């Protein structure tokens, strides 16, 4: 089997908390992306999706500890922590932070703010860097002449485009986008999503789209993983996730999302996610699940292959156990 | 009990003041505890001490008598016992410190809250007034005022209070201005709550920790101010404060007499109390605004760990596709 | 259609030709550069009604004036012109004192449940405060009963479990329910809900929306402000689409969604992501963003971005009217190409 462009294997992230306790935010996440592939990481607040991609960038705070591997072109970039991840940060893996469009320095021109990281990473300097900044802006649909403008002269959507241009400065192969359209209007959201799809198609950029918004993923990505309480509950092609969910959480999450033309009732999932600073007994979703049976509360479901390219962590997929239900 | 704690993508402190905030802010910070303990100790000494020691000015021996068993810190230029003087001085110095801080907080609080809450012209007028007070050089003003209004303890308190309210006013104005726009305040207003309810029920409790921190810091400033006003000879001549002890030591030529015990101990007392108050105040401020404490994005120092023994099944591991249970979870929810 | 307006009783809320302009602060640089004083035309002649037992969704992008409209209805701002009538009474120019009874009958639900509760108030205090403000305190036991009832009505059962908690001990959905309980304790007739679920997790949104729907069925009128057409389509009776301070299309929710008449509504619907990956529509992306409400185009305000604009569109400022394609009564659009 060919080695994919980026492969995340059994990634764990813990945060030390005050008082000596620990928060196990990411609990064994694995996924892989090919060049030009678009992958959605979906989940609700606190499920560990953002922490997961911050770990891929090595951008975790000092109270974090990480286990697992991230293979980029076959090389484990987490091998020796910061030492091995920093050469790849921004150059191979880049990220658009949540709210990036509001993170521009108001007293520097947008161009300057794209040039600076390029010079810092010794990609280009001086005139060359400015030329490249102009090209990058053109790539994301902003006239190069706008590089000399200040952030406040840009609309929200344009600032988000500029933030994307910034992340592309060092020719990354993988782009991680954290809620890139959350604060934007639907019309602008559509423009930004179109841009991201275009980038992955035209430049073979592998895109990891982190969002709570299932329909956005459904419209943009080929593959997705649904996260809950730090774990992937189910992953696979979107068609499958939507039409034939193999985990009750996936099914309920789709059912909780109102659709313009959907006719069924929009459901809510009772209860709240478990605390992540404790050990979780059995399936983390069991207390909120509508399909629980004997083993769910005690035995942790295995993350099993449930079809081509598909995995799910639910006892219902375990033939030996499911019979009992 | 499920709490909102689960929403911790990356644990981050909030600057929001919650119930019990002040207690945790002080108890969670060793330097605040030390500061508070020191201040309370000095208050107790100042309140109870003079009753134990009796009249401090009584001449008990020769001028600048060396420290000895009966007079651990020796005698001053008037032959009075230094320990007694220090204990009595604590009462006056702390009284001036707290009373002046109270006056400052009162003026600054009213100005700051009114300006911040009402905004507009009220704000402009009050802030202009604050600016005037802010640019007046404080030491000369204190000297002039003390000379003008007389050298009583009450006047000293008022002068210090009136000079140092400006920072409080500005701080509170900014804070109140932002809290006034908070949704819960807007919600209360839309529900029909009047201004006094908004201020006293919603805004003041929220700025209380800031007021406390500010008061404690002002106590330090005021004690310091009293010390140098008195040292300059403008203090209340009848009151014994630490500043007066230093001034007396100076006028009595303690240095020429090598009587370090007459001049160092009051100075040390001032330093300790000022330091304690500053430590407490700074700790509360820091808790209020965690960003003051650590560079929040001091990233890249995460650790790598060995995988826990109980891992999940790797997706690459090939497992027989469970045909029997296929579709077991495909509910009606998403199928239509 | 029960919400068809020729009954004898006046509608719960009747907004007529509401206009709300306010000056833009120029800032120091602006003043020094002698930039002309701008005026934001936030709301420019908006007319709509909300009846008892009806939910009207005011849908639009940011800056379209939907929030300002709600602020005007709540009389937190003074409208420039137009009329706001609540149960037949004109409240447009009432002073603070005369507005007090109104502050009971019209309640607002805010977007951010993490911000809308006083962090120092227990649930009990938050729900009790409205009673205090309006002097409805009564005996202690009666007061407690009212608080418990409101919590139950807001779906926080058993209420004893929640009454002594602080906001930071509640989840987002629970906080929003507490905010709703604090509104319900006054038995309001009209709820204004400003993006009531957009800050909540997907899994709990429906719960809050069903709660609002239940209140509507009990007879409350609800004006919901949202940017989310999918939610509006599911939970509102009627949808009004706003663009640059004007309602450009209004009608029964299903009609607006399935048979849109205005080109802006059509574009908006086309860009709403569908949750079925097979329905990857070709979004009809309008170029540019919503223009700045300080410079409203003459003629039809949508014409610079409209894919079907004709020269007349630059001259005629269309009013809301029945269109050739509309099938349901009360379905109107402001577009000369659709009439």
Amount of helix of chain A: 25-40%
Overall morphology of chain A? globular
Order of helices and strands of chain A: EEEHEEHEHHHEHEHEEHHEEH
Overall form of chain B = globular
CA radius of gyration of chain A: 21 Å
Could you please describe the fold and organization of this structure?
Chain A is 29% helix and 23% strand. Chain A has 325 residues and is of the alpha/beta class. In chain A, the strands form 2 sheets. Chain A has an 8-stranded mixed β-sheet with strand order 6-7-8-3-9-10-12-11, with helices on both faces. In chain A, helix 6 links the parallel strand 7 and strand 8. The radius of gyration of chain A is 21 Å and the shape is globular. With 336 residues, chain B is mainly alpha-helical. Chain C has 339 residues and is of the alpha/beta class. Chain C is built from 11 helices and 12 strands. Chain C has helices spanning 27-32, 66-73, 96-99, 102-105, 123-133, 140-153, 172-184, 202-217, 229-235, 253-258, 263-271; strands at 13-23, 39-50, 55-59, 81-86, 89-90, 106-109, 190-194, 221-226, 238-243, 246-252, 321-322, 332-333. Chain C has an 8-stranded mixed β-sheet, sandwiched between helices. A 4-stranded antiparallel β-sheet of chain C has the order 2-1-4-5, covered by helices on one side. The longest helix of chain C has 16 residues, at 202-217. Chain C is globular, with a radius of gyration of 21 Å. In chain C, 53% of the residues are buried. Mean pLDDT of chain C is 90; it is low at 1-6. The interface between A and B is large, with 78 and 45 residues.
Provide a compact summary of the structure.
Chain B has helices at residues 21-27, 30-53, 82-118, 120-135, 138-149, 153-163, 166-180, 183-190, 195-231, 242-251, 260-288, and one strand at residues 303-304.
Features:
heterotrimer, A: 325 residues, alpha/beta, four-stranded antiparallel sheet, 10 helices, globular, C: 339 residues, eight-stranded mixed sheet, 12 strands, 20% strand, disordered N terminus
Show the helix and strand layout.
The complex is a heterotrimer of chains A (325), B (336) and C (339).
Chain A: E1 6-16, E2 22-33, E3 38-42, H1 49-57, E4 64-72, E5 75-76, H2 82-85, E6 93-96, H3 110-120, H4 126-139, H5 156-167, E7 174-178, H6 186-203, E8 206-211, H7 214-220, E9 223-228, E10 231-237, H8 238-243, H9 248-255, E11 304-307, E12 310-312, H10 319-322
Chain B: H1 21-27, H2 30-53, H3 82-118, H4 120-135, H5 138-149, H6 153-163, H7 166-180, H8 183-190, H9 195-231, H10 242-251, H11 260-288, E1 303-304
Helix pairs in contact in B: 2-3, 2-11, 3-4, 3-6, 3-7, 3-9, 3-10, 3-11, 4-7, 5-6, 6-9, 7-9, 8-9, 9-10, 9-11, 10-11
Chain C: E1 13-23, H1 27-32, E2 39-50, E3 55-59, H2 66-73, E4 81-86, E5 89-90, H3 96-99, H4 102-105, E6 106-109, H5 123-133, H6 140-153, H7 172-184, E7 190-194, H8 202-217, E8 221-226, H9 229-235, E9 238-243, E10 246-252, H10 253-258, H11 263-271, E11 321-322, E12 332-333
Parallel strand pairs in C: 3-8, 3-9, 6-7, 7-8
Antiparallel strand pairs in C: 1-2, 1-4, 4-5, 9-10, 10-12, 11-12
Helix pairs in contact in C: 5-6, 5-7, 6-7
């Amino acid at each position: 089997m060919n080695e994919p462009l980026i492969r995340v294997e059994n990634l764990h992230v813990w945060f030390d908390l005050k008082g000596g306790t620990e928060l196990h935010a990411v609990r064994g996440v694995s996924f892989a992306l090919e060049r030009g592939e678009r992958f959605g990481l979906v989940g609700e607040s606190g499920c560990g999706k953002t922490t997961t991609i911050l770990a891929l960038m090595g951008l975790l705070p000092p109270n974090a500890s990480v286990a697992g591997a991230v293979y980029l072109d076959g090389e484990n970039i987490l091998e020796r922590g910061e030492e091995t991840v920093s050469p790849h940060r921004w150059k191979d893996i880049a990220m658009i932070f949540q709210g990036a469009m509001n993170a521009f320095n108001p007293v520097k021109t947008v161009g300057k703010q794209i040039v600076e990281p390029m010079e810092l990473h010794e990609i280009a300097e001086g005139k060359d860097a400015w030329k490249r900044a102009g090209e990058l802006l053109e790539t994301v649909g902003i006239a190069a002449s706008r590089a000399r403008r200040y952030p406040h002269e840009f609309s929200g959507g344009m600032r988000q485009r500029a933030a994307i241009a910034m992340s592309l400065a060092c020719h990354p192969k993988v782009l991680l986008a954290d809620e890139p359209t959350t604060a934007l209007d639907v019309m602008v959201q559509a423009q930004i999503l179109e841009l991201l799809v275009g980038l992955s198609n035209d430049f073979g950029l592998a895109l990891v789209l982190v969002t709570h918004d299932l329909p956005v993923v459904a419209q943009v990505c080929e593959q997705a993983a649904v996260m809950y309480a730090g774990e992937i509950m189910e992953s696979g092609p979107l068609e499958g996730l939507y039409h034939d969910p193999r985990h009750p959480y996936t099914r309920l999450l789709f059912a909780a999302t109102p659709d313009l033309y959907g006719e069924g009732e929009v459901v809510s999932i009772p209860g709240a996610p478990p605390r992540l600073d404790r050990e979780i007994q059995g399936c983390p979703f069991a207390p909120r699940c509508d399909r629980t049976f004997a083993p769910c509360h005690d035995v942790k479901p295995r993350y099993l292959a449930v079809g081509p390219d598909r995995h799910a962590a639910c006892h219902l997929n375990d033939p030996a156990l499911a019979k009992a239900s | 009990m499920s709490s909102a704690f689960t929403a911790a993508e990356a644990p981050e402190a909030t600057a929001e003041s919650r119930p019990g905030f002040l207690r945790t802010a002080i108890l969670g910070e060793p330097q605040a505890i030390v500061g508070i303990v020191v201040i309370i100790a000095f208050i107790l000494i100042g309140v109870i001490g003079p009753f134990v020691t009796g009249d401090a000015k009584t001449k008990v021996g020769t001028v600048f008598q060396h420290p000895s068993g009966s007079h651990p810190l020796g005698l001053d230029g008037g032959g009075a016992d230094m320990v007694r003087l220090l204990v009595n001085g604590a009462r006056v110095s702390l009284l001036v410190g707290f009373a002046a801080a109270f006056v400052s907080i009162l003026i600054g609080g009213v100005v700051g809250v009114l300006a911040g809450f009402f905004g507009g012209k009220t704000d402009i007028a009050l802030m202009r007034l604050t600016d005037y007070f802010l640019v007046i050089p404080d030491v000369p003003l204190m000297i002039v005022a003390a000379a003008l209004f007389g050298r009583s303890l009450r006047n000293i308190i008022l002068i210090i209070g009136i000079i140092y309210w400006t920072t409080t006013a500005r701080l509170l104005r900014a804070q109140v201005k932002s809290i006034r726009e908070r949704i819960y305040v807007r919600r209360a207003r839309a529900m029909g709550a009047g201004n006094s309810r908004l201020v006293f029920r919603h805004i003041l409790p929220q700025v209380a920790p800031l007021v406390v921190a500010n008061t404690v810091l002002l106590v330090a400033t005021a004690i310091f101010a009293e010390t140098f006003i008195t040292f300059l000879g403008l203090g209340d001549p009848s009151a014994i404060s630490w500043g007066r002890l230093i001034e007396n030591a100076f006028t009595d030529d303690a240095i020429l007499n090598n009587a370090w015990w007459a001049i160092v101990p009051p100075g040390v007392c001032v330093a300790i109390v000022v330091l304690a108050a500053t430590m407490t105040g700074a700790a509360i401020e820091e808790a209020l605004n965690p960003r003051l404490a650590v560079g929040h994005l001091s990233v890249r120092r995460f650790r790598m760990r060995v995988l826990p023994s109980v891992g999940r099944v790797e997706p690459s591991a090939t497992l027989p596709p469970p045909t029997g249970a296929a579709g077991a979870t495909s509910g009606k929810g998403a199928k239509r | 259609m029960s919400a068809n307006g020729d009954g004898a009783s006046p509608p719960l809320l009747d907004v007529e030709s509401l206009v709300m302009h306010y000056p833009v602060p120029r800032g120091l640089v602006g003043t020094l550069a002698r930039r002309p004083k701008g005026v934001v035309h936030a709301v420019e002649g908006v007319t709509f009604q909300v009846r008892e037992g009806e939910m009207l969704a005011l849908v639009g992008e940011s800056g379209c004036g939907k929030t300002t409209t709600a602020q005007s209805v709540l009389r937190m701002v003074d409208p420039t012109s137009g009329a706001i009538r609540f149960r037949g009474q004109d409240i447009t120019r009432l002073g603070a004192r005369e507005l007090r009874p109104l502050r009971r009958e019209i309640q607002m639900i805010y977007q951010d449940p993490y911000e809308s509760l006083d962090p120092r108030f227990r649930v009990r205090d938050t729900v009790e405060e409205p009673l205090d403000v309006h002097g409805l305190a009564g005996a202690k036991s009666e007061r407690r009963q009212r608080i418990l009832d409101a919590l139950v009505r807001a779906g926080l059962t058993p209420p004893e479990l929640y009454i002594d908690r602080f906001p930071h001990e509640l989840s987002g959905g629970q906080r929003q329910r507490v905010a709703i309980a604090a509104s319900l304790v006054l038995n309001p007739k009209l709820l204004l809900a400003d993006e009531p679920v957009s800050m909540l997790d997907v899994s709990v949104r429906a719960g809050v929306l069903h709660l609002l729907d239940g209140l509507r069925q009990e007879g409350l009128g609800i004006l919901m402000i949202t940017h989310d057409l999918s939610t509006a389509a599911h939970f509102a009776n009627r949808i009004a689409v706003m663009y640059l301070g004007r309602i450009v299309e209004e009608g029964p929710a299903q009609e607006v969604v399935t048979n849109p008449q205005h080109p802006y509504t059509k574009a908006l619907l086309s860009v709403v992501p569908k949750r079925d990956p097979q329905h990857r529509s070709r979004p009809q992306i309008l170029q540019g963003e919503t223009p700045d409400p300080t410079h409203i185009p003459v003629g039809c305000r949508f014409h610079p971005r409209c894919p079907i604009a004709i020269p007349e569109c630059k001259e005629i400022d269309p009013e809301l009217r029945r269109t050739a394609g509309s099938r349901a009564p009360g379905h109107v659009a402001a577009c000369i190409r659709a009439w």
